[in-house]
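Why should sequence recovery work at all? Because a backbone constrains its sequence more than one might expect. Tight turns favour small or flexible residues, buried strands favour hydrophobic ones, and helices have their own preferences. The token representation captures these environments compactly. In the example below, the structure is given first.
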């Protein structure tokens, strides 16, 4: 049997070399496996960047972003996009203190299940919309069927049948060897 392809520390190296790492670290340090979480969020950024570069300005909705809104935080620091983290477990006190301490802009959250705020998100001023599902425990197709969106990134985890599309043809469907988690299959989806 052929050996499994080697994973790469490239994403960690790229993150840790930057001054912005100091601001991000307090959020990632709270995770049981910070390196895994950092590479998962960074994968979303790397895979979406070429698509975001084609959009003048965009909003990124981070679904299932956890209590510490880490992917939204990363995108707020590394991009010009408006970010909204959506998770019923958001620790609002912690993320608002972090935002204020580091003077982070374009970083908001909704402490809610995505299904319960889709109408509210669709009613926001029209803007190209990107969606991340970084190990989000949601049915990606069901969410995308209702949400207004243009580009989405999803990373599989323990429930791949739900977290990868089964009804759409992905623009990309691949493994990201920069992701330091057991399942590193991701998809980039483009709205038709
Ligand atoms: C495996 S965790 C992902 C954690 C996150 N990516 C991180 O870096 O910490 C799955 C997350 O999905 C969230 N979740 C589950 N159902 C959801 C729903 N219907 N809408 C939004 N988030 C949901 C959970 O609250 C949990 O925080």
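From this structural description, the recovered sequence reads:
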């Amino acid at each position: 049997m052929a050996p499994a392809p080697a994973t790469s520390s490239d994403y960690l190296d790229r993150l840790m070399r930057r001054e912005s790492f100091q601001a991000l670290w307090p959020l990632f340090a709270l995770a049981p496996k910070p390196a895994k979480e950092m590479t998962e969020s960074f994968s979303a950024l790397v895979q979406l960047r070429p698509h975001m570069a084609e959009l003048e300005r965009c909003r990124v909705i981070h679904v299932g972003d956890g209590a510490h809104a880490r992917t939204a935080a990363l995108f707020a620091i590394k991009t010009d996009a408006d970010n909204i983290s959506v998770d019923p477990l958001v620790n609002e006190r912690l993320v608002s203190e972090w935002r204020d301490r580091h003077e982070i802009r374009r970083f908001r959250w909704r402490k809610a299940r995505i299904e319960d705020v889709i109408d509210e998100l669709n009613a926001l001023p029209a803007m190209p919309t990107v969606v991340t599902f970084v190990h989000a425990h949601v049915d990606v197709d069901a969410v995308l069927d209702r949400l207004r969106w243009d580009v989405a990134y999803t990373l599989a985890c323990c429930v791949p049948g739900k977290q990868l599309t089964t009804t759409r043809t992905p623009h990309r469907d691949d493994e990201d060897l920069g992701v330091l988690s057991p399942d590193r299959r991701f998809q980039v989806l483009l709205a038709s």
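A few observations help interpret the result. Residues 20-190 form a domain with the Rossmann fold fold (CATH 3.40.50.150).
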